[in-house]
Amino acid sequence: MTIESARGTPVELVDHTSLLEMRGISKRFGGLQALDDVSITLRGGEVLALCGANGAGKSTLVRILAGVEQADGGEIALDGRVVPIESPQRAADLGLNFVHQELNLVPKFTGLQNMALGITAGRSGFVATKALRGRAGEVRELLGYDIPLDVPVEKLSVSDRWMVSLARSLMRPARFIAMDEPTASFTQDEADLLYGVIRELTTNGVGVLYISHRLEEVLLVSDEVTTMRDGRVVGSHRSDRLDVVSLTRHIVGHEVEEPTRHVGAKDAARGPVRLAVRGLGRKDKVSGATFDLHVGEVLGIAGLAGAGRTELARLLIGADRPSSGTMTLDGARYAPRSPHDAIRAGVALVPEERRSQGLLLGESIDTNLAVAALGRARTMFTGFSPRSSRRTGRRLAERFAVKTDDTSRPVLSLSGGNQQKVVLAKYVRTGPSVLVLDEPTVGVDVGARAEIYETIAGLAREGTSILLISSDFDELAVCDRVLVMRHGALVADVLGAQATKALLTRLCFRSGEVVPEDSTTR
User: Fold this and answer.
1) How do residues 386-412 score in pLDDT, each as one tens digit?
2) Where in the numbering of this chain does the ABC transporter domain appear (predicted)?
């Protein structure tokens, strides 16, 4: 089969039995053995899923394949021929394409300009805009997704940005595509579109390496699953011989319980009101939000992409100013002018986009754990010392199971899931009375997810009030109540025991579903 390059040159692709092999790959970072004799095989026209707990070595393996990191040992073969991959450009020249979990896009560039990055210019020194736009149109048609070509990506939704990144990888000849947590911010319809694209690619002989913590999704899209643990491959299985329970066991090495509501959850909604929100709104983003959050309650907010959940969270922590409404915290007026004001008052947000909003990527794990607590200090000279920060960093890293041998290492050296644990620990350290969690387990493995749920339950038992925003309706099983948000408005209040995935889905789409007794619609 053939795939056209961005300049329309046909590139012949041959479906080999083994398209890609990584043999005996090893990599060490300081005292941490990130990869230990790892071998994987991907056949042309198939989807190989790579699964493992955070810190298992998946991201490091992909970075070596992409030429970003160099292995200490082992070799990479394409079509049975050993090839050195010393740089990302070399990987691209070999037809290896990557869509990373943390998207590498230029915010000020348009969708089309980002899609053009990395395309080699012709003899004239530039790529013809007409030809480029034509190729972009072909890629959009293949994806079945209306990517905004002329809008700066900083103004696009997370899912739109991901589609721009995927489209960029398809602008060049593709033999192989690695996708890291591709549907983390997708609606179900968007995910279904992606599954169709993957089927089209594999039909044409492209090999796909698929990394996801959504195990049902892994089993749906993959032909084979390779699991990793502690830097080693622990098994490879055909997907049709696995189910979620057995795959979970391969990943973590033991059974993992489903999330359950914390002990005492039944009484939480009857306790004192911690945060009272009345008629809170902002232009066309949030409309008249009214609800109570009680002491020790875990209150969920469900909704589709664009429903206004994140916009509501930003109002609660002072990141945006409301155009209407009032709030009280423990009976006193609460009107934060900034996130720092909110932290001082005892309200903290763990943001969805951890890298851009939750972390100082160039700083150490210790420093990242310290900075939020400084926000609650009355002056910049209060409450900070390097020695105590290191001590606290080690304690929090142990409590939240952050996989690192040294908390003085840059936080950027951690896997995505371990970075998420640092963000969570960072804000828990501030001792908030209200903790807002926006998609807290996106990109987090099944074992770490269970640990985060237990942390949420533990904080609630201690009296912390939790507002949990999630597009994963199964995750909302940890909540005492679930508010449903649609088009910027809160439209239903469902008791946790009745908040099934089916009911929440129907309420989000407003199909006329009758809410169970003891719950309310608005």
Assistant:
1) 666 677 778 888 887 787 878 888 888
2) 20-255, 263-512
Write the DSSP assignment of 65-120 as a string of letters.
HTTSS--SEEEEEETTEE----SHHHHHHTTEEEE-SS----TTSBHHHHHHTTPP
How far apart are the C-alpha atoms of 146 and 140, rounded to whole Å?
6
What are 62-101's pLDDT values in tens digits?
999 999 999 999 999 999 999 999 999 899 889 899 987 7
Domains of the chain and CATH, by start: 2-252 (3.40.50.300), 257-346+432-522 (3.40.50.300), 358-431 (no CATH)
Structure token digits, residue 410: 């840059």
For 318-335, how does the pLDDT look when each residue is reduced to its tens digit (9 = 90+)? 999 999 999 999 999 999
Name the residue among 234, 233, 242, 302 with its Cα closest to residue 472.
302
CA distances from 442 to 227, 271, 421, 502 (A): 19, 30, 11, 21
The pLDDT of 407-431, averaged and rounded, is 83
Q: Are strands 176-180 and 489-495 parallel, antiparallel or unpaired?
A: unpaired
Contacts of 393 (CB under 8 A, 6+ apart): 364, 365, 366, 369, 370, 407, 408
Closest C-alpha to 438, from 338, 326, 302: 302
Dihedral (C-alpha) 226, 228, 232, 237: value to the nearest 10 degrees?
-30
Rounded to whole angstroms, how far apart are CA atoms 338 and 348?
11
